[in-house]
Design brief:
This protein has about 550 residues and is mainly alpha-helical. It is about 65% helix and about 5% strand. Helix 4 packs across helix 11, helix 4 packs across helix 12 and helix 5 runs antiparallel to helix 18.
Length: about 550
């Protein structure tokens, strides 16, 4: 279905194909769901904005602009987009080294790439990213996010000029500043973290992040604790997002190309994974290519209106579904509610303690880590799969996402080729019969006829096995049975051509049995069928053996004359 995906917003299809009565019943539910999701998104957007190295309101700008546009233009019924934890460390690194202009350039590049991916109908390609890789880099991102929040959770104070952008630098700074632990900050963070984990057992309808946020504000304000708040570190701006086109040049775009690719890859993977999860919850199908185009447009608009990169958020999408949202209207309402919050309530964000923000992000990191999947794979997967998982995990922490995914995909492809090549076999036989055979009796071969059977795809990973095919001095006909060969690539074709040359040099003629459609097309394009002779391609092994007998009989007759 995704291959036939039309680049058309799913909202238009819903409005077009739904009756007025259905819309009349569903729209109020979507409005309520949008309000609920906005309550969930509010503390998360603020926290993720701070974790990304930008101001709190920029996190809200992202949820508003990207959230509205992606819901309006996207290919999922219930997807909620906005800032996510997966982007936090990446964005923070770009902002720290290249500033906001660097982030804008990288996100514009990512947006263009996402749009091109959608227009080129590459949405289905994301399915080829193995589960081991997504689990590995997601767990790695969770670890880097956790390390980045320990400073505020523990209330540490770093000396002026401390550089802590990379994960290793953050760990070094934590070790150097551990003596500056603020016990009051630890208490606030621990209480908020406990609320985040325990509150869902009390009440699922009210988001635990909102309760933790209110509890943190109350503790610091009422008890007068010496804990830094958002207002101590940021100047809160309640102004609505406005369009701003910075001064960008080609040199900046060239320098941000790698970062743009990183953001695009992560946005595509995260958004489409979220869509798949949402589909399973509402028994629907998303339009992958439409979603990629919408993600690209939403990301470009987000940074041009002061936001940061966005993608589909699984937790907020799940909250939308549970609240009754079934159309993109809920995602658009969630963005509009956040506009009202930004305009009227944003100044109160200055009261939020930094340990509370850190606790919320630690909770997010825990939920996204997928440690159960990680442990399960380590226990049950093959050694190669576990190696890919661990390597992707470590490289994400030590280097970055692109290096991790590239290395993981490379190892996965090598392991896959090795596995497939091991499944391919070339064996010779004199008699052959099994329960799936085309006939039930044994085939008795003339002495001068030799049969080899190939099972499995013929590609560059196994062609050396073709060279193991040999003939005897008395062999006149060599039958190659290929009913078990589903595919043939150029290297496999070259191996068959070499086999033909070998047989020709030894006075042996080739006969092929049961060549499947794709290998046959490859042979025809290469001129191999004409070279061997079309009459020597038979439909079954019995036909091939009978053909060899006929040729032997003709030779005997000719010799007798």
């Amino acid at each position: 279905m995704q291959q036939r995906d039309k680049i058309k917003p799913i909202l238009f299809s819903i409005l077009k194909h739904s009756s007025k009565e259905e819309l009349k019943q569903q729209i109020p539910r979507d409005i309520v769901a949008g309000i609920v999701v906005a309550v969930v998104a509010l503390p998360l957007s603020i926290a993720l904005g701070i974790a990304s190295g930008v101001s709190p309101e920029q996190g809200l700008y992202t949820a508003i602009i990207a959230g509205f546009l992606i819901a309006f233009l996207g290919g999922s019924r219930v997807q909620i987009s906005g800032p996510t934890a997966a982007f936090a460390t990446i964005v923070a690194g770009i902002v720290a080294t290249d500033g906001i202009d660097g982030l804008i350039a990288a996100t514009i590049i990512a947006g263009i790439l996402l749009i091109l991916m959608g227009l080129c109908k590459l949405g289905a390609v994301i399915r080829f990213v193995p589960f081991t890789i997504t689990t590995g880099f997601t767990a790695g991102i969770a670890v880097t996010l956790t390390i980045g929040q320990l400073k505020d959770f523990l209330g540490l104070t770093y000396p002026d000029g401390t550089v802590a952008v990379e994960t290793t630098e953050k760990l070094a700074a934590l070790a150097d500043g551990i003596a500056t632990v603020n016990v009051q900050a630890c208490v606030v963070g621990a209480v908020c973290l406990a609320i985040l984990f325990l509150w869902p057992r009390v009440c699922e309808r009210v988001p635990s992040s909102l309760i933790a946020l209110l509890a943190g504000i109350a503790m610091v304000s009422v008890l007068g604790l010496d804990v830094r708040t958002i207002g101590d570190l940021y100047v809160i701006d309640s102004a609505l997002p406005t369009f701003h086109l910075p001064q960008l040049d080609w040199a900046l775009f060239r320098s941000q190309l790698a970062n743009g690719v990183t953001i695009a890859i992560l946005a595509a993977i995260e958004s489409l994974l979220s869509c798949v999860v949402a589909d399973s919850m509402i028994s629907a199908h998303h339009r992958a290519n439409t979603e990629l185009v919408a993600q690209g447009i939403g990301n470009i608009a987000s940074v041009l209106f002061g936001g940061i990169p966005a993608t589909g958020a699984i937790a907020r999408t799940a909250a939308n579904v549970k609240a009754g949202g079934r159309t993109p209207i809920s995602g658009m309402v969630h963005a509009l509610v956040l506009v009202a919050v930004l305009a009227f309530l944003m100044p109160y964000a200055a009261l939020i303690p930094m340990p509370t923000i850190a606790a919320i992000l630690l909770y997010v990191a825990y939920n996204m880590s997928g440690w159960r999947n990680f442990a399960h794979l380590c226990q049950t997967a093959s050694k190669g799969a576990v190696a890919t998982l661990v390597l992707t995990f470590v490289l994400t922490i030590v280097f970055d996402l692109v290096v991790a995914i590239a290395a993981g995909m490379l190892i996965t492809m090598v392991l896959f080729l090795k596995m497939v090549s091991e499944e391919t076999e070339v064996k010779g036989w004199k008699y052959y019969c099994d329960e799936n055979s085309e006939v039930t009796h044994l085939r008795e071969l003339p002495k001068s006829v030799r049969v080899y059977e190939i099972n499995g795809p013929m590609f560059f990973g196994m062609t050396e096995r073709i060279a193991d095919i040999s003939v005897k001095e008395f062999t006149k006909y060599l039958i190659i049975r290929m009913r078990g060969v589903p595919s043939l690539d150029a290297t496999g074709m070259n191996a068959l051509e070499n086999l033909y040359a070998y047989c020709d040099a030894h006075g042996v003629r080739l006969i092929f049995s049961h060549v499947n459609e794709q290998p046959m097309r490859t042979m025809q394009r290469a001129g191999f069928v004409d070279l061997v002779g079309e009459e020597h391609f038979r439909s079954s092994i019995d036909d091939a053996i009978a053909h060899a007998r006929e040729l032997l009989a003709e030779e005997s007759t000719a010799a007798g004359e």
